Amino acid sequence: MTTVIPGHCPVCETRTEFRSTDGWFRDHLRCAACDSIPRERAFAWALDRFRPNWRELAIHESSPAPARRVSARLREGCKHYIASQYFPGVASGKIHQGMRCENLESLSFKDASLDLHLHLDVMEHVNRPDLCFREMARTLRAGGAAIFTTPLYAERAASARRAIRFADGDEHLAPPEYHGNPVDDQGALVTFHYGQDFSDLIRAWAPDLSLLRLDLNDARIGVIGEFRDVFIAVKGMI
Ligand SMILES: [Zn+2]
Fold first, then answer.
1. Rounded to the nearest 5°, which phi and psi values hold at 131?
2. 53 C-alpha vs ligand 1 centroid, how far in Å?
3. 11 alpha carbon to ligand 1 midpoint, in Å?
4. What letter would DSSP give residue 237?
5. What is the 40 CA–ligand 1 centroid distance (Å)?
6. Which H helix or E strand runs over 129?
7. How confident is the model at residue 91 (pLDDT cuts 50, 70, 90)?
8. Is it the case that residue 53 has pLDDT exceeding 90?
9. Where are the domains of the chain?
10. What is the CATH number of domain 40-235?
11. In the predicted model, is pLDDT for residue 24 greater than 90?
């Protein structure tokens, strides 16, 4: 059975239909015009609402999928857009395979040099989220923000580490789970399942950041289904 929902897509900014032939809307409820999926639409909606001047801002997007319209919109629309991918063993700031390498745990950006860190489903793959949030806080200007998606397991009170990445291999603490990775056909190993304590953890890791969690649930913009949360971590008070 095909689900068809008319609405307005925040990614391609057109009247369109959201269609799915699968009950798992998270990966299958696609915009007929731009192929966006619910978390991309939630992210674009949040960016437009909370930083409507994003086209003028200094943006760093970590790990964009180049073919996805949600990232092309940033690349084409923002004058000061920097994209990076993470390549193990390559220093942050270096160009590798034509892409700038940045390790979110150790960024090459100067203190207070960026307005926005943006990423979609990256934080569940990092080894040291504590360092990532500290580095995002360090490199953001006052009032700057990290706007991102990552799966939040609402039924889970405490976040759980599923794997540890070491230089000589991975230690699995739970059955391995991989997601698509734009620069590695092997996929990206899931290191964390975040739970209800995610906001508390971020505050403990990076006290400069104030966190908003948006639980959007709005069929009119095609944001329904599983794991729809968008997080906005602002440097300073919101
Ligand atoms: Zn669209």
1. -70, -40
2. 20
3. 5
4. -
5. 9
6. helix 129-139
7. very high
8. yes
9. 40-235
10. 3.40.50.150
11. yes
Cα 37 to middle of ligand 1, angstroms: 8
Tokens of 152: 């939040």
Could you tell me the distance, in angstroms and rounded to a whole number, from the CA of residue 30 to the centre of ligand 1? 8
Q: How many angstroms does the Cα of residue 31 sit away from the middle of ligand 1?
A: 5
| Ligand 1: centre distance to CA 81 (Å) | 21
**What H or E segment, with its residue span, contains residue 77?**
helix 69-77
In angstroms, what is the span from residue 70 Cα to ligand 1's centroid? 9
pLDDT tens profile 155-175: 999 999 999 988 888 999 999
d(CA 14, ligand 1 centre) in Å = 6
Averaged pLDDT of the chain: 95
Q: How far apart are CA 195 and CA 199, in angstroms?
A: 9
Residue closest to 44 by CA, chosen among 22, 17, 21, 14: 14
Q: Is the pLDDT of residue 182 over 90?
A: no
The token pair that represents 107 in the structure block: 């960024």
- CA–CA gap between residue 135 and residue 121 (Å, rounded): 18
Give the total residue count for the chain. 238
Indicate yes or no: pTM above 0.85.
Answer: yes
Q: What would the two tokens of residue 111 be?
A: 């203190």
| Residue 38 CA to ligand 1 centre (angstroms) | 10
The percentage of residues in the chain with a pLDDT greater than 70, rounded to a whole number, is 100
Letter for the amino acid at 105? E
Q: How far apart are the first and last CA of the chain?
A: 43
